[in-house]
Specification:
By secondary structure, the chain is an alpha+beta fold. Strands 3-8-10-9 form a four-stranded antiparallel β-sheet. The protein has a four-stranded antiparallel β-sheet with strand order 5-6-4-7. Helix 9 packs across helix 13. The protein is globular. Bound molecules: 3-hydroxy-3-methylglutaryl-coenzyme A and NADPH dihydro-nicotinamide-adenine-dinucleotide phosphate. 3-hydroxy-3-methylglutaryl-coenzyme A binds next to strand 1, helix 4, helix 10, helix 13 and helix 14. Belongs to the HMG-CoA reductase family. Keywords: NAD, Oxidoreductase. Pathway: Metabolic intermediate metabolism; (R)-mevalonate degradation; (S)-3-hydroxy-3-methylglutaryl-CoA from (R)-mevalonate: step 1/1. It holds the Pfam family HMG-CoA_red.
Length: 428
């Protein structure tokens, strides 16, 4: 159902009013509303079924990033995160991106790699040829275990043999199963296939199979997003948009050449992506591992985004990175809030979800670069973090807003200052 994700007053509402607004906009069911009102509603019995030794639940804020326009479709993006200013920055940059059509995205097929490690091979190149000659038999065996996936149009498509002639333990071959996992993240799916083919692989190669596990460097499962911005987008009373664009490109260049900066730059990108991964019940460690390995693929650790100027002087931002997200499998179906998130996003495939995730990453990166290249990160970030600081100092109810206002006005956001302000107010 088409919606308008541009919700200018959403930030000023209370959480209860925001849920009412979403209910009207998205026609949320009574059950979804109820789940949102009990924020994070995860019955202990379900939690106990998800992991081991459960003794409770740990809740995090669940928010909605507004303004996203992705391939011409308005999307509201659920984000689960503890850090202030992330949701605001993503929403802000999505708002700016709308002027030039929002985010345009694409993705490759959902292909995952499973690795089968083969040791004890005396003739690695001969073994490689034998395995490649047996490709059809290996693929057929891999596919014999998951008929549902085949019916859905997925399954093992190909094999690759990676040869390590020298290693500390002698020659090593690594066979990759290339598997189309459709709408699953696919870890369990491909691990089962890798274990299934291991005896055949041993017979054909003459070696011993050890590890049979997916690779989180999902470099065949890439999602991409692009956005453009006119210089006027960044005009302010003090700054010319053209200079802001130059500052953003210089900031990006810093990340492209210096791994110390690239780590922080990419952390900013993951500020947007991880909260969506968590909100949809997906495996954020897998996404993090894939992101940073991909950022190192050219022999040095670099930026996951690029920022450049087109002929008209418009800022052009792009992102491309592995994105192994599922709509089924893992906790996506078990966690009730993950299901609410998927309904809010209204995505039809794991690829669509992956493309929205990288669009949020690109927006988040721009939010940080724009702030860093102009006024610095502290004004916007600390103004929002000030609420945390006030609460840490013991402020409750109306005291919170009052303490925040004093600290932001004085540009002095510290717990000690919040405590002093609180004492001053209480002793009046
Ligand atoms: C924080 C802002 C957005 C303020 O920026 P501002 O100019 O004060 O915002 P504004 O009040 O003019 O509002 C503009 C829009 O921002 C959004 N917005 C604004 N405030 C809110 C709010 N309270 N709640 C919800 N949405 C908010 C909202 O969309 C709003 O438009 P509207 O829809 O209202 O017409 C800006 O300063 C900013 O983008 N800063 C960057 C913040 C950031 O990057 N945070 C990430 C954490 S820092 C970090 O971990 C990463 C880092 C920085 O190290 C990465 C790196 O180094 O690359
Ligand atoms: N290194 C890593 O990242 C590792 C991660 N994991 C964990 O693995 C989990 C994800 O594994 P995953 O294989 O995705 O999950 P599941 O095994 O839970 O679910 C995948 C299964 O769902 C079924 N299915 C139903 N509909 C579809 C559809 N439209 N598209 C694709 N499959 C469908 C498939 O068939 P059927 O049910 O018939 O099999 C498929 O095998 C996560 O919890 C992750 O944390 C595990 C090991 C390592």
């Amino acid at each position: 159902m088409p919606i308008d994700s541009r919700l200018p007053n959403f930030r000023s509402l209370s959480p209860a009013q925001r849920i009412d607004h979403l209910t009207t906009l998205l026609k949320l069911s009574d059950q979804d509303q109820q789940l949102l009102r009990n924020a994070g509603a995860l019955p202990l019995e379900i939690a106990d079924g998800m992991i081991e030794n459960v003794v409770g639940k740990f809740e995090l804020p669940y928010a909605i990033a507004t303004n996203f326009l992705v391939n011409g479709r308005d999307v509201l993006v659920p984000l689960v995160v503890e850090e202030p200013s992330v949701v605001a920055a993503a929403s802000y940059m999505a708002k700016l991106a709308r002027a030039a059509g929002g985010f345009r995205t694409s993705s490759s097929a959902p292909l995952m790699r499973a690795q089968v490690q083969i040791v004890g091979v005396t003739d690695p190149y001969g073994a490689r040829q034998r395995l490649l000659r047996s490709k059809d038999e290996i693929i057929a065996l891999a596919n014999s275990k998951d008929t549902l996936l085949l019916q859905l149009g997925g399954g093992c498509r190909d094999i690759e043999i990676h040869t390590f002639e020298q290693s500390a333990v002698g020659p090593m071959l690594v066979m990759h199963l290339i598997v189309d996992v459709r709408d699953a993240m696919g870890a369990n799916t491909v691990n089962t296939m890798a274990e299934t083919v291991a005896p055949l692989v041993e017979k054909v190669s003459g070696g011993k199979v050890r590890l049979r596990i997916l690779s989180n460097l999902a470099d065949l499962r890439l999602a991409r997003a692009e956005a453009r911005f006119t210089p006027e987008t960044f005009d302010t009373a003090e700054l010319k948009g053209k200079d802001v664009i130059d500052g953003i490109i210089e900031a990006y260049t810093f990340a492209a050449i210096d791994p110390y900066r690239a780590a922080t730059h990419n952390k900013g990108i993951m500020n947007g992506i991880d909260p969506l991964v968590v909100a949809t019940g997906n495996d954020w460690r897998a996404i993090e591992a894939g992101a940073h390995a991909y950022a190192s693929r050219n022999g040095h650790y670099g930026s996951l985004t690029t920022w450049e100027k087109d002929k008209q002087g418009h800022l052009v931002g792009t992102i491309e990175m592995p994105m192994s997200l599922g709509l089924v499998g893992g906790a996506t179906k078990t966690h009730p809030m993950a299901q609410v998130s998927l309904r809010i996003l209204d995505v039809k495939s794991a690829q669509e979800l992956a493309e929205i995730a990288v669009a949020v990453g690109l927006a988040q990166n721009l939010g940080a670069l724009r702030a860093l290249a102009t006024e610095g990160i502290q004004r916007g970030h600390m103004a929002l973090h000030a609420r945390n600081i006030a609460m840490q100092a013991g402020a409750v109810g109306e005291e919170v807003d009052w303490v925040v206002k004093q600290m932001v006005q004085a540009r002095d956001v510290r717990t000690e200052r919040a405590g002093a302000l609180l004492n001053e107010r209480r002793n009046k």
